[in-house]
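fyi for ur records
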Amino acid sequence: MAERAAQALALGLVLVVGGCKPSWPRFEAPDGTFSADLPPPLRVDAERSEGNQRLLSIESRGTEDQGFLVQRRRPAPGRRLDPQGVLDGFCGEFARARDYQITADARGTRRDGRPAQTCAFHGQGLEIRIQVIAGGQCVYTLMAMWQGPAPDVDRFFDAFRVKKDCSADEPP
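which gave:
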């Protein structure tokens, strides 16, 4: 009887330990606008200007054949952004620019109430899932890319949080 109890306990530990996913570090945006969980190692690019917008990028490349990316785009001071307009044309424009095949394209609302556009693509040996989220004057792009077995994309998308809407910056 004691032997069976020990075997059951050992099996239970194996299932619990084997079923747990390693923790991912939480990235908090320096200005408090969003947070995201991504597997290490992380590469954070300083916010930079590109044309009429500012771009902040956080990238995770845990392995050579998969990666996660968070980008926040917001307008340059004195400019305004139409977040709904960005969501409307995103999937088609992204696919055309890279010659990718769209395998899914859906508009909806995230669990946190934010409007989002979710797309999936296949191209150049990659599978790609993207979710674009509006948060005031910011648009967030969450991207997972992989070859082979799919990474934990839902975990990545679900852990992302817009903590406060971005407002339009006035020109200096």
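The chain has three helices and ten strands. thats all i got for now
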